[in-house]
Structures are given as structure tokens and as C-alpha cells.
Amino acid sequence: MRQTSFCLASTGMVVAGQRCMAKKKSKRQQTSNQRRGIVTNLYPDENYGFLSAGEGGHEVRFAADVVARDEFDELRVGSEVVFEEAPGTDGPDAILVDLVSIPYPAFEEGEEPMASEDEVPEMPDTWQEK
After folding, report:
1. Successive 10-residue mean pLDDT values, the chain, 130 residues
2. Assign residue 35 a region: left if phi > 0, alpha if psi is -120 to 50, beta otherwise?
3. Which domains does the chain have, with CATH numbers?
4. Among candidates 43, 41, 48, 110, which has minimal Cα distance to 78?
5. Which of 25, 37, 79, 88 could lock 51 by a disulfide, CB 3.0 to 4.6 Å apart?
6. CA 83 – CA 89 distance, rounded (Å)
7. Backbone φ and ψ of 11, nearest 5°
8. CA distance 108 to 1
9. pLDDT at 104
10. What φ, ψ does residue 41 adopt, rounded to 5°?
């Protein structure tokens, strides 16, 4: 009779002599090591950027592949993120970056908004809180 080998990755338990690695934690799980920061520089052609760790905080480098849900292309300078930091070869590196919010683009001087305040329709009564 042939014996089938398998492992239970969630427990790290080995069945029938096979070694297995536990699955990595999902990037969506919050941990106590995560901090808030703001993206300060982006270099999309080189797939990395820098963020500032809070007000007056130090700069932390991050690579595109550590941005959760492949949202590197969604990041903008000023985007708010949650990140985990680890020592790197040239200073601190982010090992996880999770996008929280993207700044609304400001109007350039002389640029008109899409609609003036008097052109914006009122919200229907059914949408308003009571």
C-alpha cells in the first residue's frame, strides 16, 4: 500500500515525513508593529519609493513588491499608508506597505473646477441623515 504524504501548514505539523513551511501571514492582517506614514518620493520606473514615518519622522525606503494588493501604481506623493519597518542595508526598509488614502489633486493656478458650487446638485432627501 502506498503512503500519501501531506502537511498541515497552518499547524506546521508533518505527516508521513514531509517537511512543510507554515503559510506566511496575510498582508492584510494588522500587527502592533505597524505605523502610519506619508509617501514622500516615488520612483515608479525603478519600482521603489520613500515614506516619512509620522510627523518629523525619518525616511523609510520601500519596494513596489511590499505594497499590499499590488497597489504601487495607485500611490501618490502625499498618500497615507500603514507600514512595518525593518533594518535594511542602507537604512530602514518597509517590509509591508498598505495604502490608506490618496490625496485629492489640487487645482493648478488658473484651472477651473469641474463644477462650480451652484452647479452641484443637491443630495436627495432619501440620502440625507435624519
Report:
1. 40 40 40 87 97 86 96 94 94 95 76 65 66
2. beta
3. 27-101 (2.40.50.140)
4. 41
5. 37
6. 18
7. -105, -15
8. 75
9. 78
10. -145, 140
